[in-house]
Amino acid sequence: MWETYAPSSSVDSEFGAFNKSLTAFEAAYPYITVNVQTHPSSSEQADFTTASLANQAPDVIRAANDWTGAFVAEGFVTPIDQFMNSTFTSQYFPASIADYQFLGHTYGLPENINGLALIYNKALFAAAGITSPPTTTAQLVSDAQAMTKYDSTCKITTAGIAFNAAAGFGSGYWWWPFLDGFGGSVFQATNPAMPTINSSAAVSSVEFLNSLVTDPNPGTGCNGVMSPGTDYGTAETMFDTGHAAMTINGPWEISAINSSLSALGDKFGVVALPTVSSTGMPLAPFIGSQGWEIASGKPADVTAASFKFISWMTNYNSQKNLVVLAGDLPSNKALANDPAVTSNAADVGFLAQAALSAPAVNTPEMGVVYSNIGALGAAEPTSATTPVTAATIQSTLNAIESTTLKAIGSIA
Length: 412
Description:
The protein is α+β, with helices and mostly antiparallel strands. It has helices at about 15-30, 40-55, 70-75, 85-90, 95-100, 120-125, 135-145, 165-170, 175-180, 200-215, 230-240, 255-260, 300-315, 315-325, 340, 345-355, 365-370, 390-410, and strands at about 1-5, 35-40, 60-65, 100, 105, 110, 115-120, 150, 155-160, 215, 220-225, 245-250, 270, 285, 290-295, 360. Helix 1 (about 15-30) runs antiparallel to helix 14 and helix 10 (about 200-215) packs across helix 18 (about 390-410).
């Protein structure tokens, strides 16, 4: 099997958690020999493709969920439905098990989850007299307006909110929850190969995001609650140094926040993103995961042994090892009530978001969308005083849709 953990001598790491779970598996199944090979995550997808074409694929691969569609289309991984029933799959958060489902079959099991949520600075909220984080987008805007500060030129010095809104809203990743919340989707529900990124809902979602930069802030004479061109690094620095009241980020950012805000004590919280005031629908980011898949074309006994392995590595105890030793978020629903999770307020917040999130799209066509969505940056404001018209947003999305459709046609 190929695993992609960063090799470490520390027990307190994903590699350490994996080895602890592996030791337990080998004790429980002494007749199954596991040949562990560490593989670079950056090249694993391409290397697995090469190995599969040469009939030299490993029996088991640790795979990102969004590789599933391509692997299935190429015939490289095998469905595992024969080993499971609804009781078995119900142990996982629905979005996480859906991450490994394609065309009506399940091809893998998730060992963790990750995704975006709203992170807020409790000290800045308290200073503004705001007692709780926003639950609607209208409240998010009004809260952000109350906490945004400017210099004499109307340059934002403390942002009401700051997140990765550059280059097509972080190559689409920070756009998806807003697209979904405004009633849109990346692909048609009845045709998962047909993108719908130029819908009226898509335009509305971009208009809202742009308004965070260009709408007047009443009583200040200035515009915006977020600076134009805010990228990941800028948003991270502003929030971590106490110069942004809210951000949208994932669990991977918590260690940096803890380190940066240590002087302020425990002054940040994590909650689910708000609902869209105009639609009543929640902002629903994609839930991604790392998990395990089984290569196709293997002998039946090897496939059966491989399933025993991947089900073990994603069970309650193995995931708890990842939670305790590496700080991962579990895909196992029961762990959400374990003290190892409930004692961590940030984890509780991220899991509350997970219950409202959407499974990441894992089709080959999604890779084409990611390759082209950066062009959406042309519909983002370049300054706080230059709003982008709905017509420009629509035109930009139409162009991206056209380019994407041509590219999808070339891989069909």
